[in-house]
Amino acid sequence: MTDDDVLAWLTDSDPSLRWKVERDLLDAPEDQWQATRARVAHEGFGAQLLAAQGEDGLWAGGAHFPAGFEWGDPQPWTATSWSLMSLREWGVDADALRPDTAGLLERNARWEYDDLPFWGGEVDACINAFTLASGAWLGADVSGIRNWFVEHQLNDGGWNCAWVEGATKSSFHSTINSVIGILDDEWRTGGTPELHAARKGAEEYLLERQLLYRLSTGERHVWAHHLGYPFRHRYSALRALDHFRAAAQFDGTAPDPRLADAVERVRASRDADGTWHQAYPLDGAVWFPVDVDAGEPSRWLTFFALRVLRWWDGAQG
């Protein structure tokens, strides 16, 4: 496909993706992409997921795992935290959910870990990042989670979900989820100076490693350039680059030159048909599929890759 063919293919998509293509790749007028974004709550993926919300405010009867989940089975992606993440990332307005969803979750949702209250967060950095961003979106009081991130940042600058088991070194996966959630909170609420400083320190942790390498040995993580959508909790250089693009735009800064290696690996992973292909979709139950099987061209991954390259190449030029 030519570049024009790829863009036409991307616009022939669910409104949850189409409005982003219009805004970030086609430079469409704001009234056009906003009108497409408004459709997300009423058709396609967004409407289907909104319809699955229970009267108690939850999805699948659970906070992070569906009610009745049997430990040892693959992680399902149907419970409340994952559903909120998808709706938020697709651009659904908070008022499209059940009235007072934040209050419903405050009253009815408890974390599977120690029966902790939903908006107070958990012990897992990734879960807390998802909840921080969703709380900022829905207007919940997530001040405790903001403080949690500042208090639990590790000495090397990032976070590790296994800290509760004694981990003292940060994790790429935990850290990327954390900075994405923190940035979302800053964008929606202004955040706090302490949390902003924590985000910048964690971004430096990733930049020191060029998004790809172990700092101690220089070895490249084999999973760092594997591509899969939905991202869920997974780290990839593409997902990290998209965060640094959003952070640079929010902070008013230029792209850091230490991103160059990761950018070129994303560029090199483009397939001969002009798209980026799904490498490994995650196992586990979903409400409905939002992307393709492994080996097929992915509209979502192609969009994210083209958006990153447009930002990077534009800055370099």
Characterise this structure.
With 317 residues, the chain is an all-alpha fold. 49% of the residues lie in helices and 0% in strands. The chain has 13 helices and no strands. Helix 2 runs parallel beside helix 13, helix 7 (125-138) packs parallel to helix 9 and helix 9 packs parallel to helix 11 (237-251). The longest helix is centred in the middle third of the chain and has 18 residues, at 172-189. The protein is globular, with a radius of gyration of 19 Å. This is Phage-related protein. InterPro entries: Terpenoid_cyclase/PrenylTrfase.
Based on secondary structure, the structural category is mainly alpha
Q: Judging from the principal axes of the Cα atoms, what is the shape?
A: globular
**Helix-strand sequence:** HHHHHHHHHHHHH
- Assess the beta-strand content as a share of residues: under 5%
What is the terminal-to-terminal distance?
25 Å
Largest sheet: none
Count up the helices: 13
Mean pLDDT across residues: 96
Bin the helical content.
Answer: 40-55%
Report the uncertain regions.
none
Radius of gyration: 19 Å
Secondary structure: number of strands: 0
Organism: Microbacterium testaceum (strain StLB037)
Protein name: Phage-related protein
InterPro entries: Terpenoid_cyclase/PrenylTrfase
What topology does this entry show?
Layout: H1 3-11, H2 15-24, H3 30-38, H4 44-51, H5 80-89, H6 101-108, H7 125-138, H8 143-152, H9 172-189, H10 193-208, H11 237-251, H12 260-268, H13 299-316
